[in-house]
Amino acid sequence: MQVRRPDDMRERIRMLSGALRGLADRPVKVMEVCGTHTVSIFRQGLRALLPPDVELVSGPGCPVCVTSQGEIDAAVSLAGLSGTTVATYGDMLKVPGSGTTLEEERSRGADIRVVTSADQALSMARGDRKRNVVFVAVGFETTAPATASVVIDAVREDLDNFMVLNLHKSVPPALEALASDPEVKLDALLLPGHVSVITGLEPYRFLPEKYGIACAVAGFDAEDIMLALVEVTKQVRKQEPLVASLYGRAVRPLGNTEARSVMEKVFTMKDASWRGLGVIPSSGYSLREEFSRLDVLERLGMTVNSTLPPEGCMCGEVLKGLIDPPSCGLFGASCTPVHPVGPCMVSTEGSCAAFYRFQRGRRTDWEHLP
């Protein structure tokens, strides 16, 4: 296999940047949906390569960021349960609830543990049958199959001490909410790579057909992303929107049918609250009746309240692509990665955290390209 030299890659990027400039004959607003794309774009300084007529904005691609304030409060409230271990992904620890965070509760003695997989949480329940373990499950179609799998295992093994706070959400309904929002006004979408590995391409067909939005699925290196931007800009210029896949090495047209089969066995769809987007019909995953005894909300009679986000926090506007992070008055002042106010500054996939880390006053190598 021939390995491409760095100079060759830079030349390819330069050519793609030039192609974008030649194609953009009118303003084109492109939203990248995936949080990994957001971080890759900022880290690689790709915004410096865009012509003035191509505007790139971040969307609701960070699962921690779109988790509503009420859902965060529900997760934090689990820390007060006696004889209970709360297992969650690391990004959830610092997200501020209305009064405290999981990290603060852990410092006060609550048993809160960071896991990197749903199976680790299930193993905790297997290891101590006398102690309850609640897995705070966040994520889109990327992580939902793993949660579904451990739910099946827990029921099969009769692990009554294992429960789930299920906060999983589905990406396509959120994209429809954005596409139909007259305030957002998108021309194109850089579709999520990891989610599309599971969903395939079919769930996005409505975007070009119903809303005239150009779409492309892409990988995560600079060339992948630039190729996708050229593709959607070309679609916009020709007024021929479609769903293009530029990530064929990972995304099959029908996605991962086995993973979706596991999800369909465990989950049904429900209306769900998204930070910044409000309640979106049929956008949340709910445990089916035969698995509902593992739902911590149902088991303990808990509810998720409708709670306002922190005062002054504009995570919602960032997630809709209406503003860049610095337009929030809290950004870089009272809201930093060390002392975050909203989840967009907490998560490793959050737009505010990425902008703060990679973009502030930084000159990139790409800016030297002719």
Word description of this protein:
This protein is α/β, with parallel strands linked by helices. The chain has three domains: 10-58 and 171-245, Rossmann fold, CATH 3.40.50; 64-170 and 255-294, Rossmann fold (3-Layer(aba) Sandwich), CATH 3.40.50.11740; 318-358, no CATH class. It is 37% helix and 16% strand. The chain has helices at residues 6-23, 35-43, 63-66, 69-77, 102-107, 118-127, 144-156, 171-179, 193-199, 206-211, 222-238, 257-266, 296-300, 315-319, 351-359, and strands at residues 28-32, 54-58, 84-88, 112-114, 132-137, 162-166, 188-191, 214-217, 243-245, 267-274, 278-287. The strands form three sheets. Strands 2-1-7-8-9 form a five-stranded parallel beta sheet. A four-stranded parallel beta sheet has the order 4-3-5-6. Strands 10-11 form a two-stranded antiparallel ribbon. Helix 2 packs parallel to helix 15 (351-359) and helix 7 (144-156) packs across helix 12 (257-266). It is globular, with a radius of gyration of 21 Å. 50% of the residues are buried. Mean pLDDT is 92; it is low at 1-6.
Order of helices and strands, N to C?
Answer: HEHEHHEHEHEHEHEHHEHEHEEHHH
Shape: globular
* CATH class placement of the largest domain: Alpha Beta
Enumerate how many helices there are, as a single number: 15
Percent strand equals 15-25%
User: What would CATH call the homologous superfamily of the largest domain?
Assistant: HypD, alpha/beta domain 2
Helices and strands in order:
Elements: H1 6-23, E1 28-32, H2 35-43, E2 54-58, H3 63-66, H4 69-77, E3 84-88, H5 102-107, E4 112-114, H6 118-127, E5 132-137, H7 144-156, E6 162-166, H8 171-179, E7 188-191, H9 193-199, H10 206-211, E8 214-217, H11 222-238, E9 243-245, H12 257-266, E10 267-274, E11 278-287, H13 296-300, H14 315-319, H15 351-359
Parallel strand pairs: 1-2, 1-7, 3-4, 3-5, 5-6, 7-8, 8-9
Antiparallel strand pairs: 10-11
